[in-house]
């Protein structure tokens, strides 16, 4: 009887061994979590790109310090994490101002795995003259592998609207669609000639192959906004009268911000709102 009563007790674990087992499991779980969080880089960056002199460093400086500091042509990127200047929102944002120099373009792919958004800055005043170069750069951005996969939002900032010769965003969007439509045929032709696969380069075919190129055919959310980061707008009025789509350009319009003027450039508030909305969507 005694032996029978004790036999099962020999196999039942003591409360202490239960506790040790629990501790061990908790330690394994904690280690696994630590490993996962280390191996997966945090996606939190906004990359400012565009040709030289378009206003990238001015934008970075306005977002960070609320004023346009004198800039020099940079060969290194400005990179910092900070709450947007003057914003009521306390969250810090990781912002990178990539140099516009052509030899530094390869830097983009280093950063896109971390990117939530790309801010593509255009000098709207020199755009008519430089539209081919701007389109080539935008093509590189839109066809970059991580951007193509979707999930990275793109804001095209048509800057220098204080200039009388600046093109409005609808006109820029249409011209860029035309240029990209042309570029994608020439680029894929070059690809075929070199029998390179698209995945080895950024020269992927953009959009639908049976229709003229439209931004709206991309998986990427592309928006256009106007701004004058420096200087005064000649008319002093709102620029959002033609907000939205439906002009045949297929590009999505920027959103309307009532009285968006504030210190440090007209239209800046709209850019800040876009950054905050994209970041909030990720939290
Ligand atoms: N008129 C005018 N000039 C601007 C504007 N934004 C930037 N700039 C000027 O354009 C030049 C190039 O700006 P910067 O930010 O250095 O361009 P980045 O090369 O793209 O970094 C500077 O002299 C800026 O003061 C704007 O909205 N209007
Ligand atoms: Mg710069």
From TrEMBL:
Pfam families to which the protein is assigned, alphabetical: SRPRB
GO biological process: Golgi to plasma membrane protein transport; intracellular protein transport; protein localization to Golgi apparatus
GO cellular component, one term: Golgi apparatus
Main localization of the protein described in the UniProt heading: endoplasmic reticulum
UniProt-listed CDD domains: SR_beta (cd04105)
Compositional bias of kind Acidic residues: 236-246
InterPro entries: P-loop_NTPase (IPR027417), Small_GTPase_ARF (IPR024156), SRP_receptor_beta_su (IPR019009)
Transmembrane segments: 16-36
GO molecular function: GTP binding; GTPase activity
Bias-annotated ranges (Gly residues): 247-259
Membrane topology: Single-pass membrane protein
This protein's UniProt keywords: Endoplasmic reticulum, GTP-binding, Hydrolase, Membrane, Nucleotide-binding, Receptor, Transmembrane, Transmembrane helix
Ranges where the record places region Disordered: 231-271
Highest taxon in the source lineage: Eukaryota
Compartments, as annotated in UniProt: Endoplasmic reticulum membrane
Family membership noted in the UniProt record: Belongs to the SRP receptor beta subunit family.
Name this polypeptide is given: Signal recognition particle receptor subunit beta
């Amino acid at each position: 009887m005694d032996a029978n009563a004790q036999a099962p007790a020999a196999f039942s674990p003591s409360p202490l061994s239960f506790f040790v087992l629990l501790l061990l499991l908790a330690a394994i779980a904690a280690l696994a979590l630590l490993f996962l969080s280390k191996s997966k880089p945090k996606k939190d960056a906004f990359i400012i790109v565009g040709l030289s002199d378009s206003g990238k460093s001015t934008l970075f400086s306005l977002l960070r310090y609320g004023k346009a500091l004198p800039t020099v042509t940079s060969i290194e990127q400005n990179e910092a994490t900070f709450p947007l200047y003057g914003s009521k929102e306390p969250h810090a944002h990781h912002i990178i101002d990539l140099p516009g120099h052509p030899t530094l373009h390869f830097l983009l792919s280093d950063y896109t795995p971390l990117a939530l958004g790309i801010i593509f800055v255009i000098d709207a005043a020199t755009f008519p003259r430089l539209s081919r170069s701007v389109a080539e750069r935008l093509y590189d951005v839109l066809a970059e592998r991580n951007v193509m996969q979707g999930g990275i939002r793109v804001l095209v900032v048509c800057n220098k609207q204080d200039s009388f010769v600046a093109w409005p965003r609808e006109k820029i969007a249409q011209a860029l669609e035309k240029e990209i439509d042309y570029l994608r045929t020439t680029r894929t032709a070059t690809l075929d000639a070199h029998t390179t696969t698209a995945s080895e380069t950024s020269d992927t075919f953009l959009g639908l192959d049976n229709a003229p190129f439209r931004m709206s055919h991309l998986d990427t959310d592309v928006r256009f906004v106007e701004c004058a980061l420096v200087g005064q707008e000649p008319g002093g009025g709102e620029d959002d009268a033609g907000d939205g789509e439906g002009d045949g350009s297929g590009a999505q319009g920027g959103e309307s911000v009532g009285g968006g003027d504030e210190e440090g450039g007209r239209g800046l508030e709209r850019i800040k709102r876009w950054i905050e909305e994209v970041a909030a969507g990720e939290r």
